[in-house]
Write a structure and sequence with these properties.
The chain is of the alpha/beta class and 252 residues long. It is built from six helices and eleven strands. It is globular, with a radius of gyration of 19 Å.
Length: 252
């Protein structure tokens, strides 16, 4: 059973509304459960014409299309450009590694979620979705906002620089302009502030957006590096809580 959040405060938030175009019932059910636990209602459609008819009738905060039906997905994405009701809608494409993602981004897509969709991948993607929507879901890991220089190893002979925007024990959000939107896996090297040595790990890309940001989940990180990362995050979290406590006492 998929369980992504258990924050009772979400029940008090007015739900957001999303439209989902997808012909695979398993994917529809999986996404619907995940989105609904984050207070995002889902209206699923299997045919692009039915989806477009509904988009003309009302506004949705997010429109999710599965590109397994490439022609149908492109029809909806292109048509949304002319619909006033879709002016401020976020567009999300579900895709696999064989898709030309540059085409998806060219249509104005805000976020790409890579298939196959697992619970962990959906959780990370929903974090990005809520950031775009202006809401933040409850997180599985403490996530530290800290700009850290890093190196992305794209192949044996090709590496590019990037900036880590935030980091947790499970993964990172990165900013870089030098990576293809089709990127699926990468090597990552970085040094934590105040810690000796480099952390080197492989990572799997789980989401990317039009602003050159991407989210990556750590894969096969060495135990020693994971311990260093865990201790650093714990220290940063404790420091943040102490600052909040001191500030609150000072205002009392």
């Amino acid at each position: 059973m998929l369980h992504l959040a258990s924050n009772p405060k979400l029940a008090k938030i007015m739900p957001l509304h999303s439209l989902l175009l997808c012909r695979d019932n398993v994917t529809v059910q999986f996404l619907s459960r995940g989105l609904q636990e984050f207070s995002v209602d889902v209206e699923p459609y299997s045919e692009p014409q039915d989806a477009l008819r509904r988009l003309r009738e009302r506004r949705f905060e997010a429109v999710v299309v599965d590109d397994e039906d490439r022609a149908g997905a492109m029809l909806v994405l292109e048509s949304m450009k002319t619909l006033g009701s879709c002016k401020n809608s976020l567009t999300i494409v579900l895709t696999d590694s064989h898709t030309a993602l540059a085409t998806a981004f060219a249509t104005g897509t805000h976020l790409v979620i890579y298939k196959p969709i697992s619970a962990d991948r959906l959780r990370n993607s929903l974090r990005a979705l809520h950031n775009l929507m202006g809401r933040r879901p409850k997180r599985e890991f403490d996530r530290i906002r800290f700009k850290i220089p890093s190196i992305l190893q794209l192949s044996e002979k090709h590496s590019v620089s990037a900036s880590i925007l935030d980091i947790s024990q499970g993964g990172v959000a990165l900013s870089t302009r030098d990576v293809s939107p089709t990127l699926k896996t990468l090597g990552l090297k970085f040094a934590l502030p105040g810690r000796m040595g480099m952390i080197t790990t492989s990572a799997q890309v789980v989401w990317s957006d039009v602003r050159g940001r991407l989210g990556a989940q750590f894969v096969d990180m060495e135990p020693a590096s994971r311990t260093i990362l865990s201790e650093w995050i714990s220290a940063q979290t404790l420091s943040k809580r102490l600052r909040k406590s001191t500030s609150a006492n000072g205002q009392a």
